[in-house]
């Protein structure tokens, strides 16, 4: 959803924000895996 908001604000997609959002989601997934594994 954050990526969609950022894309609406500019005429062209912001690949930097897209990459950051992917990194954040990856960190969350890894964190959840560790939390449920413990």
Describe the structure.
With 38 residues, the chain is an all-alpha fold. The protein has helices spanning 2-9, 15-37. It is built from 2 helices and no strands.
* Rg calc: 13 Å
Termini, distance in Å?
Answer: 30 Å
Shape: rod-shaped
Total strands: the figure is: 0
The percent of residues in helical segments reads over 70%
Largest sheet: number of strands, sense, barrel closure: none
- Percent of residues in beta strands? under 5%
Low-confidence stretches: none
Output the number of helix runs.
2
H-E order: HH
SS class? mainly alpha
Mean pLDDT: 79
Outline the secondary-structure elements:
Blueprint: H1 2-9, H2 15-37
Summarize, please.
The protein is mainly α and 38 residues long.
Features:
38 residues; 2 helices; mainly alpha; 82% helix
């Amino acid at each position: 959803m954050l990526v969609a908001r950022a894309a609406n604000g500019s005429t062209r997609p912001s690949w930097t924000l897209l990459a950051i959002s992917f990194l954040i989601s990856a960190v969350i997934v890894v964190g959840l895996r560790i939390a449920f594994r413990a």
